[in-house]
Amino acid sequence: FIEDTEEPSSTLAPVTADPFLLNDAIEALLSYSLIARDPHVQTLSVHRLIQVVVRNSLSAKTRRHWMQRAIDIIEAALPESLERANWPTFERLLPHALICVTWIKQAAFTTTEAFRLVKQAGLYLNARASYRDAESLLRHVLVLCEQRLGIDHLDTAIYRNALAMNAVNQGKYSQAEPLLVSVLVLSEQQLGAMHPETIQRRNTLVELYRVQGKFAEAEPLLEKMCIPREDLVKDDIPHMINSLTNLALLYWDQLKFDKVGSLRERALVLYEHLPPETDHLHQAIILTNLAMLFLNQGEDTQAETFFQRTFAIVEELFATNHIFTAISLNNLAELYSIQGKDDEAELVYQQALALCKRLSGVDHPHTALCLNNLAGFFVRQGKLTKAEPLYHQALTIREQRLEPMHPDVAQSLNNLAVVFMHQGKYIEAEPLLERMCTIFEYQYGSQHFYTALCFNNLAELYHMQGKFAKAELLHRRVLDLYERPLGNKHPYTILSRDILTRFIESWRRFTEGEPSSLSPQMLIIREQQWGPIIEARIRALTTWLCFI
C-alpha cells in the first residue's frame, strides 16, 4: 500500500514492539524472495507485481484497513520541521507519501494522520519550490481542514493563506487574490483590525496588490493603518512603523516621490521608540524597509547602516541556515555595487549565491534571483561573457519553476536581451523583449506605466536595428504611459521626453546622411522584488537592466 520504491525499514519500527521479531519476519520474507533488503541504506523493497496481487486479493474492508495502516506509518515517519536538515528524509519518504495521498483521496480518509500527511507533503514540496506539485496537495489540505473545522475557523485560514502563497509564487495572482481577501476578512472579524496577525494578513494582501500594480486597491488598506493615533501604545509601534514604511515604498513604486519623505520621517521618529523586546525578525523587516527608503532616495550611507543592522540580526537568529541570511547578503551586495565597492560587492554576491544553492537548491527561484544579481554586477563591469551564462541559468530556473507569465520570467528575458544588445546580437534579443512585453501587458495591462519599462528597451532595440518607424512609435507610447498618470513635469516623463527628442534628432541626422552622435547608454534600474513574495516579507533588491 506504499510506493514500490525502496522503503526505509525504520518506518516499520512503530508497528513492532521487538526489533528482533521484526528482523525474523523480514528474514522469512527474504527466504521466499518476496522482498529485497539493502542493509547499507536500511531499506526494503517489494516488487510492484506482488503489491498488485496482494491488494487485489483483499476485500474492500481489509484493503481500507491496510490503507489506513500505511498512512499511519508514513505519517509517523515524516519530520515535523521543514528545515533543510530534514529534506533528505522528506525526499526519501515522498514517493510513499504521495501514494498514500492517492489512498486518502480515493477512500476519503479524514483522520488526523491523513490530514497531517497531506499537509507535510504539500508544505515540503512548497518549501522545495515544487509549486505545481504542491498545489494539489495544499488544495486537499484546505478541503480536509474545512471539513474538520469549518470554513470560518482560524486554522482553516492558515491553510487558505498557504494555498494563496503557493499561487503567488507561481505568478497566479488572480487565484491568490480572493483567497487572501477572504483570509483578511476572517482575521478582521475574529481577531480585530489591529491584531498582529490581521496586520500581517493585510500587509500580505497589499504586497500582492503591489506586484500586480493595483495601487488603487492597495493604498486604502495602508492609509487607514497610517492615520496618526494619540492612543498608540508601545506594542503597536512596530506595526505602525511597518505600515508607514510599506506605504512609503508603495508610493515610491507609483513614482509619487513627494509623498515618501513625510512617511519616512514619521517611521524614523517611531523607530527611536521601538520597544527593545520587539521580535527580532520584525525588527529586521522594519530595518530592511527603512534601508530601502534611504537607498531609493540616494542616501547610501544611511541605507548601509540599516542593511548592516538587518544582517547582524538575521545572522544572529539564523546564522547561515536560513534563506533570510542570503537575502540580507544580497541586499548588502547590491548596495556595495551602487557605491562602487566592487571587490566587496562581488565577494558578498558570491556568498549569497552559495548560501542560496546550499539552502534552497541549485534550481530554486531564490537561487535564480542571486544569479540574476551577480550577472547584473558583471554587466555593470562590462564582463558580458561572465554575465550571459548566469542569466541563462536564471531564466532556465524561472521557466521551469514559475508560470510562463510570471514577472520574474520577464525580468530574466529582459536582462538576457540587454546583454545580447550589448553584444550586437539583435536577432537573439528581439524575441526575448517581445515576449517580456507580452508578460507585462498580461500582468499590468497595456496602459500601466510599469509596461513602459519594457517598451523602452524594445524601442531601443528597434533603433539599433534601424527600424526607426517602429522605434518612434514605441518611444511615443512610453512617453504617453508616463505623462498621463504622472503629469508632464514628473522626472520620468521628462526623461522619456528627452529620450524621444534625442531619438528624433538621431533619426534626422541619419536620414540626412550626417553621422549620429547618439549611442544608447545603459541605466541599471533597481526595484524592489516584484515577485515571488517572501513569506516573512524581508524584501530583496533585484537588478533590472534598461537601455536609454
Task: Provide structural commentary.
This protein has helices at 19-31, 48-57, 60-77, 87-107, 112-127, 131-149, 154-169, 173-191, 196-212, 215-225, 237-253, 260-271, 280-296, 300-318, 323-338, 342-360, 365-380, 384-401, 407-422, 426-444, 449-464, 468-486, 491-511; strands spanning 7-8, 35-38, 43-46, 522-528, 541-547. It is mainly alpha-helical. It has a domain at 7-149: Serine Threonine Protein Phosphatase 5, Tetratricopeptide repeat (Alpha Horseshoe), CATH 1.25.40. Strands 1-3-2 form a three-stranded antiparallel beta sheet. It has a two-stranded antiparallel ribbon with strand order 4-5. The termini are far apart. The model is unreliable at 516-537 (pLDDT under 50).
Topology (elements, then pairings):
Elements (H helix, E strand, L loop, with lengths): L6 E2 L10 H13 L3 E4 L4 E4 L1 H10 L2 H18 L9 H21 L4 H16 L3 H19 L4 H16 L3 H19 L4 H17 L2 H11 L11 H17 L6 H12 L8 H17 L3 H19 L4 H16 L3 H19 L4 H16 L3 H18 L5 H16 L3 H19 L4 H16 L3 H19 L4 H21 L10 E7 L12 E7 L1
Helix pairs in contact: 3-4, 3-5, 4-5, 5-6, 6-7, 7-8, 8-9, 9-10, 9-11, 10-11, 11-12, 11-13, 13-14, 14-15, 15-16, 15-17, 16-17, 17-18, 18-19, 19-20, 20-21, 21-22, 22-23
